[in-house]
């Protein structure tokens, strides 16, 4: 496997997994002109209740 690139990414979008107390979320983000990431949409992934 290659080493991750630590320089500025050329990607214009990404998906990020965010963990919450009752559910997990996937956030779709786009890179703004100033280089910061802006979230455009989120999807909830509910956790299954295991007994």
Give an overview in words.
- With 51 residues, the protein is mostly beta strands.
- The protein contains no helices and three strands.
- A three-stranded antiparallel sheet has the order 1-2-3, with no helix packed on it.
- A hairpin with a 3-residue loop joins strand 1 and strand 2.
- The chain is rod-shaped and about 45 Å long.
- It starts with 12 loop residues before the first strand and ends in a 5-residue tail after the last strand.
Sequence stretches where pLDDT stays below 50 over 5 or more residues: 1-7
Q: Overall mean pLDDT score?
A: 80
Q: Measured on Cα atoms, how large is the radius of gyration?
A: 15 Å
Number of strands: 3
Question: Order of strands across the biggest sheet?
Answer: 1-2-3
Largest sheet composition:
3 strands, antiparallel
- Class by SSE composition: mainly beta
Strand-residue fraction? over 45%
Count up the helices. 0
| Succession of helices and strands | EEE
Write down the overall geometry.
rod-shaped
Ends distance: 39 Å
| Approximate helicity band | under 10%
Strand-helix topology:
Blueprint: E1 13-19, E2 23-31, E3 37-46
Antiparallel strand pairs: 1-2, 2-3
Jot down its keywords.
51 residues, mainly beta, 3-stranded antiparallel β-sheet, 3 strands, disordered N terminus
Characterize this entry briefly.
By secondary structure, the protein is mostly beta strands. It is built from no helices and three strands.
